[in-house]
Amino acid sequence: QVQLVESGGGLVQAGGSLRLSCTASGRTFSSYDMGWFRQGPGKERETVATITWSGGRPYYADSVKGRFTISRDNAKNTVYLQMNSLKPEDTAVYYCNAASRGGIGGGYWGQGTQVTVSS
Q1: Strand-pair partners of 108
Q2: CA angle at 86 for the pair 75 and 93, rounded to the nearest 5°
Q3: Rounded to whole angstroms, how far apart are CA atoms 60 and 69?
Q4: What is the pLDDT of residues 58-106, one digit of tens each?
Q5: Phi and psi dihedrals of 30, rounded to 5?
Q6: pLDDT tens for each residue of 7-63
Q7: Distance between the two ends of the chain, CA-based, in angstroms?
Q8: What gap in Å lies between CA 83 and CA 105, rounded to an integer?
Q9: Who's near 28: CB < 8 A, 6+ residues apart?
């Protein structure tokens, strides 16, 4: 069992930055692929960024490429999402996901953290 706790959300003006963190319990964090997803008002959950267990092959949604960076620190059982140049359309609840290799989108989910970008 893996428990994920997100933090770092909040209210920010357009053009600003936030860094989300997701800390996992357990001793097997380094074996999981990790991802950040989001769900905006009236929208379906979508993939924002993913990273493999080794920290390689980061994936970004087209809407966040060049603005968001995913990274992980296996020693701290933590995955990060650095969000720069935020836009109002980035407003959403952001969820952390941990899954077995190749299974991102399944596995375990955090409770979510709200990000609100004002114009």
Answers
A1: 98
A2: 65
A3: 8
A4: 999 999 999 999 999 999 999 999 999 999 999 999 999 999 988 888 8
A5: -65, -10
A6: 999 999 999 999 999 999 977 898 999 999 999 999 999 999 999 999 888 999 999
A7: 40
A8: 21
A9: 2
- Helix (H/G/I), strand (E/B), else coil: 89: helix
Interatomic CA distance for residues 115 and 18, integer angstroms = 9
Query: In angstroms, rounded to a whole number, what is the distance separating the alpha carbons of residues 113 and 91?
Result: 11
- What radius of gyration, in Å, describes the C-alpha atoms of the chain? 13
Supply the DSSP symbol for 101: T
Cα-Cα-Cα-Cα torsion 59, 78, 13, 116, nearest 10 degrees, comes to: 90
88 phi and psi angles, rounded to 5 deg: -55, -30
Residue ranges of E strands in 1-119: 4-7, 10-13, 18-24, 33-39, 46-51, 59-60, 68-73, 78-83, 92-99, 108-109, 113-118
